[in-house]
Amino acid sequence: MRKLFLILTAIATMLAFAACAPTSAPTSLFTGEPAPTCPSPGADTNLLTNEEHGYCLLYPAEFSVNYPPENCPTYALDAADCQVVTLIGTNNSSIVWISVEDAEGRSASDVADADIAELGPDFNIQRTQLTMGGEPAVLMDGLPGQDTVRKVVIIHNDLLYALAFTPWDTN
Known about the structure:
Blueprint: H1 2-17, E1 45-50, E2 55-60, E3 64-66, E4 85-88, E5 95-102, H2 108-119, E6 126-132, E7 135-143, E8 149-156, E9 159-166
Antiparallel strand pairs: 1-2, 3-4, 4-5, 5-9, 6-7, 7-8, 8-9
């Protein structure tokens, strides 16, 4: 669980402070200020860069990265599935999904409200308001899945960035 917490912290930090926004002059994903360069990987980390969606982050070296297939729309259940980058821990023990899509004018709170409402009243989802790089974000703990899921949603430049972590245990 410590590793999953470190992953959440690393991803949130990298998204907030080391984003590689796809603009003519690099700017920080959330502040609009000149962006620092992406972090350098260390002995225990690798660098994931997604210039199309404007982020870069460090992740544990023992994780593998799965990108959506180029022909994804021909067989995906949902076109949004084609936007998901997946990081998978050793023996599939931990999984992180990163998706980016059009926010369609919604706020992070709107997205969280819809996610929670879709589940119905039978789930005890813990919701925490956050600020990441000056942008409002929402952390949801206890989302159902094969294992319990933690999800962070943040909106920037009308793009919805969602990071989902499983398994998740607050202990």
